[in-house]
Amino acid sequence: MHQPSIAHLASADPEIARLVEGEARRQYEKIRLIASENYVSTAVLEACGTVLTNKYSEGYPGRRYYEGQQFIDPLETLAVNRAKELFGVEHANVQPYSGSPANLAVYLAFLEPGDTVMGMSLPMGGHLTHGWSVSATGRWFRAVRYGVRRDTGRVDMDEVRELARAERPKVIFCGGTAIPRTIDFAAFAEIAQEVGAILVADIAHIAGLIAGGAHPSPVGHAPVISTTTHKTLRGPRGAMIMSDAAHAAAIDKAVFPGLQGGPHNHTTAAIAVALREAATQGFRDYAHAVVTNAAALAEALAERGFDLVSGGTDNHLILIDLTSKGIGGKPAAQALDRAGIELNYNTVPFDQRKPFDPSGLRLGTAAVTTRGMGAAEMRQIASWIDQAVKAAGDGDEAVLAQIASEVRELTAAFPMPGWA
Ligand code: DSN
């Protein structure tokens, strides 16, 4: 059952309680490989469910537009100080509601509508808010986009340099949502400096790896850093913008009053708890284990003939190109879900298929590593993925059901925070 208990909810609103219990059981029984998801600790869950949700606190500590901030001010200050210490930054704003609002605040802080922004193209591994056409960031700003090299699957730094020199963007985003390799923050910084752009490192996917020392840090290269708090960082759904002192005032003004009203104080508390957890040796070990597990899973998948974009991974994320397997990403992902293995279909660079039915699968090891799984489980998962993808092609539901039952047996051996 859900842990902490939801007994009051069950009595007040059994319909919602049943759905919450169902989701908790689903998370317990599945192998969760969605690269942007994780399991938060019970302490983080408790912080999310506190009376802090009752309080308005527009403004910043010591400068609020509502009374009664005796506990909220020190709480937000703690979250800010923990972020500054963990990442080694001069300034942190912990109020953005999530990653997209955080990035919108960056636009508001440093660009005027119509200004040029440069980011990684979404189908190449970037994010919607890095200037993709359907996003407000691509409609209201002049976005230019870089991609990866066809031969290596890695970010094409020559293209980044040439594009930056030709287009003179005011802001350059690095980072994204489907990048399996280390981001070369120093190389991006050199280009940004040459063209007079502000480099923004969107570290949403890899924030936990950076905090745990398992990926190089952008600090010292990117004066502005945006991140969500709920992926590898293993906190609640939320976001932060970190920066050097020179960009601090513009960011704070953009988040509030520029874009948002009152911060979600229960989320701020949970972010503070997660940041404290991330400062421990246990979390450093976790971050390195996430990377080791991803490497083991990638190797086992490659041995089974799966084509991996860039040939492997340096971080928590693997991108499979299913073209050679003769099946699209969507039917494969749906079949894997029926087999108890949860991931998402994804475009791959230079994809010949449509975004709603692309050629790829995206996987990540943050959640399974939180459950305590290791190399042996990664090999087992690769074998199940192989069997399930074949079964999907053959329309063999019996094989998928058999895998789902084996998955339930495996997951029962690995405790899940949030479930007792
Ligand atoms: N939706 C997130 C992801 O899955 O990577 C990015 O915002």
Q: Would you give an account of this structure?
A:
- This protein has two domains: 30-40 and 281-411, Aspartate Aminotransferase, domain 1 (Alpha-Beta Complex); 47-278, Type I PLP-dependent aspartate aminotransferase-like (Major domain) (Aspartate Aminotransferase, domain 2, 3-Layer(aba) Sandwich), CATH 3.40.640.
- Helix content is 45%, strand content 13%.
- The protein contains 16 helices and 15 strands.
- It has helices at residues 7-12, 14-29, 42-48, 72-87, 99-110, 136-139, 157-167, 185-195, 207-211, 245-259, 265-278, 281-303, 329-338, 366-370, 375-394, 397-411, and strands at residues 31-32, 59-60, 63-64, 91-93, 116-120, 142-146, 171-174, 198-202, 224-228, 239-243, 307-308, 317-321, 341-342, 344-346, 360-364.
- Bound molecules: D-serine.
- D-serine (DSN) binds at residues 36, 99, 127, 177.
